[in-house]
Specification:
By secondary structure, the protein is of the alpha/beta class. The protein contains eight helices and 15 strands. The strands form four sheets. Strands 3-2-4-5-1-12-13 form a seven-stranded mixed sheet. It has a four-stranded mixed sheet with strand order 10-11-14-15.
Length: about 220
């Protein structure tokens, strides 16, 4: 049975992210593995340091894994580290870079396998976007290919600051069968191992089906 999956709207590793404690407890992990891939061009080690400080407050160690470029994602050593992780965290940044690095890689296969074996997987902002297929393209709000851990679902991160024009454009282009989740910063949309979904954190989650308002019940039970 797959483990917990958290799609976070951004603003990770800080006050309001109450969901991390519950995810940590559920995972049984003694260490959180942080992949700063999305932030490769934005001081990735700062994201790791922030994660380390945050999870230290929650009683566990966070360790960064430098999967920053395509060769890193093809490394058997890195894939082995991901495969053995009970709690893996993809930070925010560029979803396009994150997709290009992880797509069809050893690290991606290991990440999916670890989650399917019951590990906890969290993706924040770009990390949440790329787990879905389709993925919202940050360059204009249209849809593009994601990595497809979840299909038929797309995430708008930092929905509380999403511009009205971008939101209107994305909703208008949304296919009839697509579930679109607008997740606020410091907020998580969480899939439980039994397939149920819940929202937790400082903000809210807005759900749309085919561009029209809906609720959490339209999210897929099976993945």
């Amino acid at each position: 049975m797959a483990g917990h999956l958290a799609l976070i709207g951004g603003g990770e590793f800080g006050e309001g992210c109450s969901f991390d404690a519950a995810l940590l407890e559920a995972s049984g992990a003694e260490e959180v593995l942080v992949l700063p891939t999305g932030a490769a061009y934005e001081h990735p080690h700062r994201s790791v340091e922030q994660a380390a400080g945050w999870f230290d407050r929650l009683g566990v160690r966070a360790r960064g894994l430098d999967v920053l470029a395509r060769p890193d994602a093809l490394s058997p050593e890195h894939a082995e580290a991901v495969a053995g992780s009970r709690f893996t965290y993809l930070v925010g940044g560029s979803p396009m870079h994150l997709r290009s690095v992880l797509k069809d890689s050893l690290v991606w296969d290991a990440l999916v396998a670890a989650w399917q074996r019951g590990g906890t997987l969290a993706g924040s902002s770009a990390g949440a976007q790329v787990l879905c297929d389709p993925m919202v393209d940050p360059r204009g709000g249209a849809f593009t290919l994601g990595l497809g851990l979840l299909t038929g679902v797309a995430v708008i991160p930092a929905h509380d600051t999403w511009s009205e024009d971008a939101a209107h454009r994305t909703l208008k282009m949304s296919p009839p069968e697509l579930v679109l989740a607008g997740v606020d910063s410091r907020t998580a949309l969480i899939r439980e191992p039994d397939g149920t979904w819940r929202a937790e954190g400082a903000g809210q989650v807005a759900v749309f089906l085919g561009g029209r308002p809906a609720d959490l019940s339209v999210l897929p039970v099976e993945v």
